[in-house]
């Protein structure tokens, strides 16, 4: 997902023009060779740290893996690892949990983040301070903030329990009850990542052409109509980027459940990434573990591509 | 916002395909070979001991042990490398390092439940050829069996750990109650203490969804006459009336209010801190809890008694304690085997085991040291440990981590009330069977 076509319109035109003017084309080709030359160390690095491990885990997911004292042995080609997954109630449950968790948290974060961005946009003096304050949860390492939340949710001496006791709700066992634990995790997630969405949307808001909004006002649109019919559609690119980043991160959810619930009670808050970790490193089942990792990556890739396609179609319709 | 231009997409596909191909051929070439056994006694060199801290937090027993060893073996130097304290994190570190061929450490500490898994995957060196039978006979009963997988012994026992019932002497005296010997008695006494407003909760243990719950459940199940896996390791035995009785009792502790509902998120530390804060009358915990609860940060220091765990009424007393503790393993890639063996031998000898017992507060694995009256006098838990009825977790199967997950995930779900005890045990049973047949998650 990191390789993005960054060619602007002018470059594209130049490239098209190149086919009509061979001499400039030759120059461009030699420049391109030079460019590849300069880029190759970086590309090698990308290959070593990204493509190699991804390829390795895909290869692993399709073979019988023996872990021995002297390394991994990948034997044969098999679909068995995937068949194990699709017959496992635990994998199906974790997939459902991760999907629902992603949809709910990303939706809430997008709505809250957009609202916060709209407020921030109106502010003049305090904006910088507020933004710095808002970014604190985002800047905290998740393991640390999850540990803080686990103190808050602690069933014996936690602040949350104390507050609930004070209002007359006793024996609440937040992290020990499936639904409550999932909601508690979602709250911690929203607390941490809403600022990220707010900043992304705010950046989009600041970039909006002021004339369009002004024109809408002159045409008699009220604030609500201006937002809903003019500004929100124009904000789409910024929103899309924010949603993409959030889906990618939320689907790979690991550190929050690892620290907060360990996937419990039972396996009710176990995400796919957490399952993959347990299968790989506790059970030393590298084949199925790699299949979990590869299938998770595949699912999130497909979701993001679909999302982008739908999004682009909508924008296209708008432009027509 | 186009994701990939066509050309680049093709290039990326080609590169990935090439990588996959290269890997599948490159990674199947390695095979292990072990060095010949080395003579011991005259070894020299510098070895690295990868170990997490054990014993009290105030002094580092590992350093005391190393200093004493280097005095006894001046030609060998030992570097201490700090290992992660969390057992699962530690295991994943070991697996990735050793299977990656690392020889950055020679000897490592490992959990008592690891020998089968590590033996099967070749992550630990088989040690039979380095020690004779008189050496293995020095250890307490049953310990050596737990180190053995398919006839090979993969570790030496460094220290062992037992579970105990810790109780508040002052509260029992105030209410004129005896120390409970059955679980039923413990529950009714706890209810009395709570009703008299002497204490907030009755009983704390480790009911979170993790390895500690497998320990606790194994004890309750054994007390009720049940087990989790058949003795030949081929099938689950957890879906039985005895196991159901044990789990129903555990759930009843929560529904009756004897245990806080948050107990389903308790590991050792949470249960112990509730006890040392004076909020609970009875605690199931490991050996170190005696020193901790009588230490300077404890509100109940001086009021804590320690006995064997209770059993269920009608069963023989005392109840079962699982064996915990840590072993010493040798990295199969170690280049200093002779020195490693000397180190292992000394660490499981009288001098080191006495240091571990007296300064580390851990139960020594060498029988003669545990029975020594001078050693027993240093810790009231040691004489109790000598009377403990021990029961191992089913760690003799190589799929133990999956078996344990099946136990603690389902038992925890039943304890939190999201499923019934019988449904949880039948789910655990089928998951254990799947794991033992090695054909699923």
UniProtKB/TrEMBL annotation, chain A:
Superkingdom per UniProt: Bacteria
Keyword Membrane found: yes
GO cellular component, one term: plasma membrane
Pfam family, one: BPD_transp_1
ABC transmembrane type-1 domain residues: 95-309
GO biological process: transmembrane transport
Region (Disordered): 1-26
Transmembrane domains' residue ranges: 34-56, 99-120, 132-152, 195-213, 234-254, 285-308
Subcellular location: Cell membrane
Sorted UniProt keywords: Cell membrane, Membrane, Transmembrane, Transmembrane helix, Transport
Cited PROSITE patterns: ABC_TM1
Keyword hit for Transport: yes
Topological category with respect to the lipid bilayer: Multi-pass membrane protein
CDD domains xrefs: TM_PBP2
First-listed, main subcellular location of the protein, grouped into a coarse class: membrane
Family: Belongs to the binding-protein-dependent transport system permease family.
Protein name: Sugar ABC transporter permease
UniProtKB/TrEMBL annotation, chain B:
Transmembrane intervals: none
GO MF term set: maltose binding
UniProt lineage: Bacteria, Bacillati, Actinomycetota, Actinomycetes, Catenulisporales
SUPFAM superfamilies on file: Periplasmic binding protein-like II
PROSITE patterns: PROKAR_LIPOPROTEIN (PS51257)
Originating species: Actinospica acidithermotolerans
Entry keyword set: Signal, Transport
GO BP annotations, alphabetical order: maltodextrin transmembrane transport; maltose transport
Residues annotated as signal peptide: 1-35
Keyword hit for Signal: yes
GO cellular component, one term: ATP-binding cassette (ABC) transporter complex, substrate-binding subunit-containing
Name the record gives this protein: ABC transporter substrate-binding protein
Recorded family membership: Belongs to the bacterial solute-binding protein 1 family.
């Amino acid at each position: 997902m990191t390789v993005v076509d960054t060619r602007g319109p002018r470059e594209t035109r130049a490239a098209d023009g190149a086919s009509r003017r061979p001499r400039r084309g030759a120059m461009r080709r030699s420049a391109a060779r030079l460019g590849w030359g300069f880029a190759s160390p970086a590309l090698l690095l990308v290959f070593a740290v990204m493509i190699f491990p991804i390829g390795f885990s895909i290869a692993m997911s399709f073979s019988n893996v023996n872990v021995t004292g002297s390394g991994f042995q990948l034997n044969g080609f098999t679909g068995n690892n995937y068949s194990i997954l699709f017959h496992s109630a635990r994998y199906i449950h974790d997939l459902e949990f991760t999907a629902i968790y992603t949809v709910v948290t990303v939706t809430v974060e997008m709505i809250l983040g957009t609202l916060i961005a709209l407020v921030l946009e109106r502010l003049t003096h305090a904006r910088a301070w507020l933004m710095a304050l808002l970014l604190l949860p985002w800047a905290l390492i998740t393991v640390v903030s999850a540990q803080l939340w686990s103190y808050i949710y602690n069933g014996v001496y936690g602040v949350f329990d104390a507050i609930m006791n004070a209002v007359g709700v006793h024996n609440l066992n937040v992290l020990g009850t499936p639904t409550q634990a999932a909601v508690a995790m979602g709250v911690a997630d929203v607390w941490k990542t809403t600022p990220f969405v707010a900043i992304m949307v705010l950046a989009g808001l600041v970039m909006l052409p002021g004339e369009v909004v002004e024109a809408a006002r002159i045409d008699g649109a009220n604030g609500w109509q201006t937002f809903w019919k003019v500004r929100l559609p124009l904000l789409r690119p910024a929103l899309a980027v924010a949603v993409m980043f959030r889906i990618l991160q939320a689907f790979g959810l690991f550190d929050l459940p690892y620290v907060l619930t360990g996937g419990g009670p039972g396996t009710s808050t176990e995400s796919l990434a957490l399952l993959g970790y347990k299968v790989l490193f506790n059970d030393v089942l590298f084949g199925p573990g790699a299949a979990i990792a590869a299938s998770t990556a595949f699912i999130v890739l497909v979701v993001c591509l679909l999302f982008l396609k739908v999004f682009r179609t909508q924008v296209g319709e708008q432009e027509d | 916002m186009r994701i990939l231009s066509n050309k680049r997409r093709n290039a990326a596909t080609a590169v990935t395909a090439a990588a996959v191909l290269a890997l599948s051929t490159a990674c199947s070439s390695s095979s292990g070979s072990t060095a010949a056994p080395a003579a011991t006694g005259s070894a020299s060199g510098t070895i690295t001991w990868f170990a997490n801290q054990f014993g009290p937090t105030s002094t580092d027993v590992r350093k005391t042990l190393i200093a004493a060893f280097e005095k006894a073996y001046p030609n060998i130097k030992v570097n201490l490398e700090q290992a992660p304290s969390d057992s699962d994190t530690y295991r994943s570190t070991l697996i990735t390092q050793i299977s990656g061929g690392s020889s950055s450490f020679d000897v490592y500490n490992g959990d008592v439940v690891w020998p089968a898994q590590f033996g099967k995957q070749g992550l630990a060196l088989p040690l039979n050829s380095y020690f004779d039978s008189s050496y293995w006979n020095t250890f307490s009963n049953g310990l050596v069996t737990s180190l053995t997988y398919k006839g090979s012994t993969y570790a030496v026992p460094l220290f062992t750990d037992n579970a105990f019932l810790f109780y508040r002497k002052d509260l029992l005296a105030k209410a004129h109650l005896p120390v409970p010997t059955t679980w039923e008695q413990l529950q009714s006494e706890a209810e009395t203490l709570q009703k008299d407003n002497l204490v907030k909760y009755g009983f704390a243990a480790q009911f979170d969804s993790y390895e500690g719950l497998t320990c606790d459940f194994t004890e309750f199940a054994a007390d009720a006459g049940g087990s989790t896996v058949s003795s030949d390791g081929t099938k689950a035995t957890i879906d039985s009336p005895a196991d159901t009785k044990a789990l129903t009792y555990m759930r009843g502790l929560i529904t009756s209010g004897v245990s806080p509902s948050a107990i389903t998120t308790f590991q050792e530390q949470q249960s112990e801190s509730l006890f040392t804060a004076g909020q609970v009358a009875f605690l199931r915990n490991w050996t170190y809890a005696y020193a901790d609860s009588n230490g300077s940060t404890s509100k109940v220091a001086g009021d804590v008694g320690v006995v064997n765990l209770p059993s269920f009424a009608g069963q023989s007393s005392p109840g079962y304690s699982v064996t915990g503790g840590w072993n010493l393993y040798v990295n199969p890639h170690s280049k200093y085997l002779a020195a490693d063996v000397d180190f292992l031998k000394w660490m499981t000898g009288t001098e080191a085991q006495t240091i571990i017992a007296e300064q580390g507060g851990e139960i020594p694995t060498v029988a003669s040291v545990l029975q020594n009256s001078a050693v027993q006098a240093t810790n009231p838990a040691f004489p109790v440990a000598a009377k403990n009825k021990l029961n191992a977790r089913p760690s003799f199967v190589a799929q133990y981590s999956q078996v344990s997950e099946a136990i603690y995930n389902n038992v925890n779900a039943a304890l939190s009330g999201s499923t019934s005890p019988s449904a949880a045990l039948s789910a655990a049973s089928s998951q254990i069977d799947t794991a033992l047949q090695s054909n699923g998650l």
